[in-house]
């Protein structure tokens, strides 16, 4: 099970436009026989040259199980945070996918490429030596807030049932509807290399950082592309808690509750736990909750039983149940 969601950057997303053939690809996954399956989450620091699918394949081998997925594709050339779900916790990845993201990278001014990043072919070159740091910062600031973005042709978005990157490889370009995204921060700092600027972006899920880089170049009367993209956070999941993929071991797995730790939680007693395990719709008072939810429902030991969401009739219903009736 691969649960990667298309959209956003890092995410031109498994497009196949970069990255050599990798030893993880095509290898058979040894499945545990009769052994316990790990249910949990691992936060991986993905290296360059690996697709997100490669990273999932490596996790399958390390944990010896097939039910593994990720919560948001990271482009092969990009590095950084990739949240991977294991076993039943793959059902919780929906609560991670839409979290805001943080990226760092380099904006290369004066050169446009076919993929809007360093992996593509050069499509234009301009003399932009007169552009100042303040000019770049001003152009970037105009992109902060709610904006409409058109997904790049190298993205994993589907149009008419086909991935855009597959169409692009075939030399086909199609109309793509714009999507509303939010850029919370777009900082620009100088870099040692002339015409290159360090950027840091906080944004909503589904934002294409390569497009933000290219848009700055266009706004300044020329072109630009993105390079050295690194995702430093997905919501509360940061590089500080990420394990380099080459150092990953089964001991790095976090409990399923980590996937929903950013939601309000409530611990319930044995009687309510039985009702939760059977998927019952409950009243707020039964769980001792208030507000809009969702809520992580835990047992007395802190293990995640279920995630409850608001029901149309005013009660709350289980969206995901991890425990089983006794």
Helices and strands in order, then pairings?
Blueprint: E1 40-46, H1 52-63, E2 68-70, E3 79-86, H2 94-97, E4 101-109, E5 111-113, E6 122-125, H3 133-141, E7 145-149, E8 158-159, E9 162-163, H4 164-169, E10 179-190, E11 196-203, H5 209-219, E12 224-234, E13 237-238, E14 243-244, E15 265-267, H6 270-277, H7 284-287, E16 295-298, E17 304-310, E18 316-321
Parallel strand pairs: 1-14, 3-12, 15-16
Antiparallel strand pairs: 1-3, 2-3, 4-11, 4-12, 5-6, 7-10, 8-9, 10-11, 12-13, 16-17, 17-18
3D structure, described in words:
The chain has 326 residues and is of the alpha+beta class. Among the domains are: 129 residues, 2-Layer Sandwich (Pseudouridine synthase); 59 residues, PUA domain (Archaeosine Trna-guanine Transglycosylase, Chain: A, domain 4, Roll). Helix content is 17%, strand content 30%. The chain is built from seven helices and 18 strands. The strands form four sheets. Strands 1, 2, 3, 4, 7, 10, 11, 12, 13 and 14 form a ten-stranded mixed sheet that branches. Strand 8 and strand 9 form a beta hairpin. The relative contact order is 0.17.
């Amino acid at each position: 099970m691969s649960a990667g969601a298309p959209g956003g950057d890092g995410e031109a997303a498994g497009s196949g436009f970069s990255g050599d053939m990798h030893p993880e690809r095509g290898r058979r996954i040894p499945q545990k026989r009769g052994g316990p399956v790990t249910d949990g989450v691992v936060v991986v620091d993905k290296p360059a040259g690996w697709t997100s699918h490669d990273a999932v394949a490596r996790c399958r081998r390390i944990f010896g199980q097939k039910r593994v997925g990720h919560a948001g594709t990271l482009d092969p050339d990009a590095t950084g945070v990739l949240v991977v779900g294991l076993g039943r916790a793959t059902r919780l990845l929906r609560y991670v996918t839409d979290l805001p993201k943080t990226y760092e990278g380099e904006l290369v001014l004066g050169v446009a490429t076919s993929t809007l990043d360093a992996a593509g072919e050069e499509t234009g070159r301009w003399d932009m030596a007169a552009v100042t740091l303040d000019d770049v910062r001003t152009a970037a600031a105009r992109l902060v807030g709610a904006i409409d973005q058109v997904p790049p042709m190298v993205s994993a978005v589907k149009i008419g049932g086909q991935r855009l990157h597959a169409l692009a490889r075939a030399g086909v370009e199609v109309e793509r509807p714009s999507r509303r995204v939010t850029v919370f921060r777009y900082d620009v700092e100088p870099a040692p290399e002339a015409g290159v600027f360090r950027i840091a972006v906080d944004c909503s899920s589904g934002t294409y950082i390569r497009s933000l880089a290219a848009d700055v170049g266009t706004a300044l009367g020329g072109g630009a592309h993105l390079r050295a993209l690194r995702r430093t956070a997905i919501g509360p999941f940061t590089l500080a808690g990420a394990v380099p993929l080459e150092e990953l071991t089964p001991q790095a797995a976090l409990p399923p509750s980590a996937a929903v730790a950013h939601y309000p939680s409530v611990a319930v007693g044995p009687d309510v736990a039985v009702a939760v395990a059977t998927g019952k719709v409950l009243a707020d008072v039964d769980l001792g909750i208030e507000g809009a939810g969702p809520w992580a429902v835990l047992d007395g030991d802190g293990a995640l039983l279920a995630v409850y969401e608001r029901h149309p009739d005013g009660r709350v219903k289980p969206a995901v149940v991890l425990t089983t009736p006794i």
